[in-house]
């Protein structure tokens, strides 16, 4: 561990925290008595000191507003993580928390691939990951594993493995266990059985407390042993999620906090509030129960269908409700309106990295639907403008939701969304880092070396700073070091025009209008951070100002490198302070010009490509890049010693500079060899700035043929090559059968669950008709397709069947009577319940005999608490007849085989399957014997209302060293054709396609499920809700790219059919429809 705020390579980087460490130690406070005694001491001693300090400032060149010397706060249980109104500090050093949200349970299959995503996060400028744990995945029943829950090693439930991989990647971790997490996942993270309890959820209701206590106790223990104080990466823990105060809510919030502390959690506890952090729910600076240590807010500031201007309320809201905290934007989403409300996630919480798309929200059925965000509304330009605006408002804790969204496989999705949870993130659903990550790397590398920004005060903002009133500027200044940061953007940030301007700044040399010649250019949706009196390197060189942005700086051997960038063709002017005129060397043919006057070296240049400017025989090197080239540069760390050697600023400040590769995962030096590990997306020019002792560079273990360049680097080419996988298209003819034998009146349902309950705790949505409760949660079925068979003795006078079915937004159902199609109902993006009356066709009833009404329902997930307080049942809410007072003699219900309590496939989990016949017999699993099935193509669909199930195989024998992420693509048919399809890969349900609602047509086939050493089993269920049946428009595979990668892939060992055959329903071939 480094000393407080002392970097290994730069004496300059001992900023405010080190200088005032004594102050922090004294005023931290461990008890009320201690705090009172220290307060008295402060009155006696500190007040004269502060007066003297103020007098000194008053006579200095700068005269900022009256600012305070802040004490650092702690939990009183540890000093490892502390905070003041400026920033978080880790081991006494100020650290900008740039966090990426990912949910490990949304990456199905081999959890070893978590490391791939984490390494991409780390390599692209982030230093922290935020993650939700999902109560429902660990507790299918209230007493799972004796109350200790299911955290099976080697599965998506292996929380410990995820934490270990986070630390291995050199990332800090923010744990968010809920118990309610929202996250657009089924039940908002609640297991399905939670809705069955009596009374309200998210209150101090005793029944609810009894429900969440085992889970929160178990997860708190895992968190506690992985805190930073125990050698783990966890630095913050969130309590609840976007949660308002109230007479019954606040005591519940306090109970959650007490559970954390009782189980050994000592790091700061946070909360992410809604509405831009304006309401102050559970802020530590307000009275009441449930107060957290650090208050955060959520923000989704972008327009959902068109560009918006940044919001300017974060700083003022923060100062109003949580002035003792750093400004923390906890859920910063790329998008805007979630459901009907703008959810803003501020201090230490989330800020939007993209946004949610609901069923049918995008009219065009194409891709994942999230292309509207990743390719426009929340692209790299959005990050450039909106995230820099956050920094301008003094945010120093920023978490991007979602950076990697992943997949809602099985029944993970809440009804508000669909299979893809891509979210328009910087790493797409298929693990591919897109152009947005280049922008984040530029910002992250700047933030981690610009510690003066972390103690900077807001000075002012407006259009008067510039010579062009169309440009808006915010000034931040560090009173301790006099470093200043000017944030520029267009006043109308939606504009795609170009504006040029000069900027009036205050420097240690006085007021200056910069550049002295030429202009600063904002090309469309652009933003820039202009530094003033910015000190860097072991030489502690001062950049008086620079109109080109700082990408990063590092010291290699005795040379200080600083990388500057601006748009291609734009001009830059950088001024540096020297006691005497320095030597300046430029490359042959360079247009760089320099002049020296009054201790200021001024360098003028045009950004076009990449070049170096050497000062004082290479003791200082300016690397100048246009932004397109800057997007290809990385600064991988060289690991330091000790437990924290992979953590920048705390364990290491040493790095090399690498230009060219798509991804640089890591760098290490052994003797004369620099070993680079990463991925290539094509044949790539590569350039490296490394210590002089390095004469050889390897890429993924293979030596690169690099030569020394005139600017002191090693340069050459890295070759990718291109794999040639032998894969058969999944539309190749396979086998199929009917997957709905249950509509036959003679089908034997005696082993199904008898639905005979007559009381419910869903008192907000009680049954509207019928004498039996047909809510699936009350019978232990919490997701997947549901089947109901209602038996009745017909009088012959019945004319119609009435049904009220509740399945969630965009759900569907189909009803048959004695095998005869009655009709189908469905919801849409805003309708979760269907009320229908179906006429009974002539000659359908069997008077005086047993008749069977069959309902197949698509379960779209359990609602979050934003809908009916989370108490929203799934199933048949009402049923009956017209024409006669006939009652049902028995209702039988079937969901996934065994329900949640006794699910057969405990490895994949109860949320993976539903109640379709093909699922119950295990036909979705590899190894299922289908030789006696008919041959058929899934494109042929189904000839009438009902379900056919298709199986086929394909090979994916990629050579080692290549990563080729693929998707299954559905070709939509006419939107009037109402059919649904579910996709299964090697036994995992990875997607749900709804032709007449959309928008998703591309479905990731996760690399963690694909088998390279044996054939892959692809299965598709096709359900037509139309009487005339349906056909698919086509199926194909597409690749998201070809990457020469350091990743190694192994076939993930999940149970095949043979391991479950004895427990599955016995398969009987049913001729396909």
Automatic annotation (TrEMBL):
Gene3D superfamilies: Beta-galactosidase, domain 2 (2.102.20.10), Beta-galactosidase, domain 3 (2.60.390.10), Galactose-binding domain-like (2.60.120.260), Glycosidases (3.20.20.80). It catalyses: Hydrolysis of terminal non-reducing beta-D-galactose residues in beta-D-galactosides. Keywords: Glycoprotein, Glycosidase, Hydrolase, Signal. It holds the Pfam family BetaGal_dom2. GO terms for molecular function: beta-galactosidase activity. Residues 452-632 form the Beta-galactosidase domain. One of its GO terms (biological process) is carbohydrate metabolic process. Residues 708-734 are annotated as: Disordered. Its EC number is 3.2.1.23. PROSITE patterns: GLYCOSYL_HYDROL_F35 (PS01182). It is an enzyme of class 3 (hydrolase). Residues 724-734 have a biased composition (Low complexity). InterPro entries: Betagal_dom2, Betagal_dom2_sf, BetaGal_dom3, BetaGal_dom3_sf, BetaGal_jelly_roll_dom, Galactose-bd-like_sf, GH, Gly_Hdrlase_35_cat. Belongs to the glycosyl hydrolase 35 family. PANTHER family: BETA-GALACTOSIDASE RELATED. This is Beta-galactosidase. The lineage of its organism: Eukaryota, Fungi, Dikarya, Basidiomycota, Agaricomycotina.
